[in-house]
């Protein structure tokens, strides 16, 4: 398929309140860089009027591409769907809510064109975010970096500009549980931070409730580290030692003629150990569940419709190509050699 100079990927989940303002500002920012751009707007199974706004955008401007997923697949997979369709030599990932200012694009393109592979936005200020969110985010990144062998930059979301080469590698990574900022760090190359002040959401409410944040954090930890599995061994060892010393204490007391009194201590000890065991099993379960889902090898996302003034058909072939190549990785063909 023919290339263009710049692609923008925007995941949208119920973003009717911001999409019009966003598309205007984004298109102006792109035009300041090149006229040869495309803006791929992915509707991640919205239940509001997001898709009809996207239809209007694509009908009014050939550079807009609308992608409607069949259902809500979550932010990371919506981004994946958009990325699989990009044609640009440079690709920008940006949220629809205008927290990441589109106007930074020309400066980011300058940095990328100086010979970098990835320019990632690093938040030096965050407006309109609760102290709770800031605290949990920063403790999470500290924990993740202790666990992961791939350094993952702190205060960094998915707002970033990447070269075609990086996006091609990203598109070839088959995993279902995607933590895209970590995957991009893993790819390597010349990556540079681009400091910026993050605005408050332009309108609407966050589409990342605590539940989705926890799910993303668990995906990040399980895809970038197996250390929690080893921690289970240490935890088991420590609690066995603890149990053993209690036993020793009881025997010594018994030999000295004291009856060790109290059911409360036994109950507390039993609950402590059952808690530890359940916790450790839960950690195993988090990994095991992901293994089960990965080996099923289902498509990462399901596309309902692609909308563009022309050439939308070619894109659907591209996506099917991506799905087919991912599937091949999951189920490699048997070698042709004779038995
Ligand atoms: N989003 C999505 N699917 C989801 C949740 C979010 O496509 O299931 C999009 C959302 O529309 C936005 C971006 O992901 O463009 C980031 O979400 P949001 O701004 O609500 O997250 P926050 O900035 O509050 O962490
Ligand atoms: Mg946001």
TrEMBL record:
<feature type="transmembrane region" description="Helical">
    <location>
        <begin position="263"/>
        <end position="288"/>
    </location>
</feature>
<keyword id="KW-1133">Transmembrane helix</keyword>
<comment type="similarity">
    <text>Belongs to the glycosyltransferase 2 family. GtrB subfamily.</text>
</comment>
<protein>
    <submittedName>
        <fullName>Dolichol-phosphate mannosyltransferase</fullName>
    </submittedName>
</protein>
<feature type="domain" description="Glycosyltransferase 2-like">
    <location>
        <begin position="7"/>
        <end position="167"/>
    </location>
</feature>
<dbReference type="InterPro" id="IPR001173">
    <property type="entry name" value="Glyco_trans_2-like"/>
</dbReference>
<dbReference type="InterPro" id="IPR050256">
    <property type="entry name" value="Glycosyltransferase_2"/>
</dbReference>
<keyword id="KW-0812">Transmembrane</keyword>
<keyword id="KW-0808">Transferase</keyword>
<dbReference type="GO" id="GO:0005886">
    <property type="term" value="C:plasma membrane"/>
</dbReference>
<keyword id="KW-1003">Cell membrane</keyword>
<dbReference type="GO" id="GO:0016757">
    <property type="term" value="F:glycosyltransferase activity"/>
</dbReference>
<keyword id="KW-0472">Membrane</keyword>
<keyword id="KW-0328">Glycosyltransferase</keyword>
<dbReference type="Pfam" id="PF00535">
    <property type="entry name" value="Glycos_transf_2"/>
</dbReference>
<dbReference type="InterPro" id="IPR029044">
    <property type="entry name" value="Nucleotide-diphossugar_trans"/>
</dbReference>
<feature type="transmembrane region" description="Helical">
    <location>
        <begin position="231"/>
        <end position="251"/>
    </location>
</feature>
């Amino acid at each position: 398929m023919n290339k263009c100079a710049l692609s923008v990927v925007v995941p949208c989940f119920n973003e009717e309140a911001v999409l019009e303002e966003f598309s205007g500002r984004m298109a102006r920012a792109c035009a300041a860089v090149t006229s040869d751009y495309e803006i791929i707007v992915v509707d991640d199974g919205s239940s509001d009027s997001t898709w009809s706004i996207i239809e209007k955008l694509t009908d009014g401007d050939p550079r807009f591409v609308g992608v409607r997923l069949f259902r809500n697949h979550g932010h990371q997979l919506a981004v994946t769907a958009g990325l699989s369709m990009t044609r640009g030599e440079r690709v920008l990932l940006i949220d629809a809510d205008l927290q990441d200012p589109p106007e930074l694009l020309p400066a980011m393109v300058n940095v990328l064109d100086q010979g970098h592979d990835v320019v990632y936005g690093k938040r030096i200020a965050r407006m309109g975010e609760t102290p709770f969110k800031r605290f949990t985010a920063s403790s999470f990144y500290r924990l993740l970096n202790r666990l992961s062998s791939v350094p993952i930059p702190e205060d960094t979301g998915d707002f970033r500009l990447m070269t075609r080469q990086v996006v091609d590698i990203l598109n070839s990574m088959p995993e279902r549980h995607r933590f895209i900022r970590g995957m991009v760090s893993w790819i390597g190359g010349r990556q540079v931070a681009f400091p910026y002040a993050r605005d408050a959401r332009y309108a609407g409410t966050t589409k990342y409730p605590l539940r989705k944040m926890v799910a993303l954090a668990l995906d990040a930890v399980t895809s970038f580290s197996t250390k929690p599995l080893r921690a289970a061994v240490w935890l088991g060892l420590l609690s066995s030692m603890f149990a053993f010393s209690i036993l020793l204490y009881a025997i010594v007391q018994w030999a000295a003629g004291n009856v060790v009194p109290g059911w409360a201590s036994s109950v507390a000890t039993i609950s402590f150990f059952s808690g530890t065991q359940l916790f450790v099993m839960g950690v195993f379960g988090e990994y095991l569940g992901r293994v089960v889902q990965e080996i099923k090898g289902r498509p990462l996302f399901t596309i309902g419709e692609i909308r563009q003034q022309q050439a939308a058909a070619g894109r659907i072939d591209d996506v099917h190509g991506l799905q087919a190549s991912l599937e091949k990785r999951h189920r490699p063909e048997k070698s042709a050699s004779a038995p």
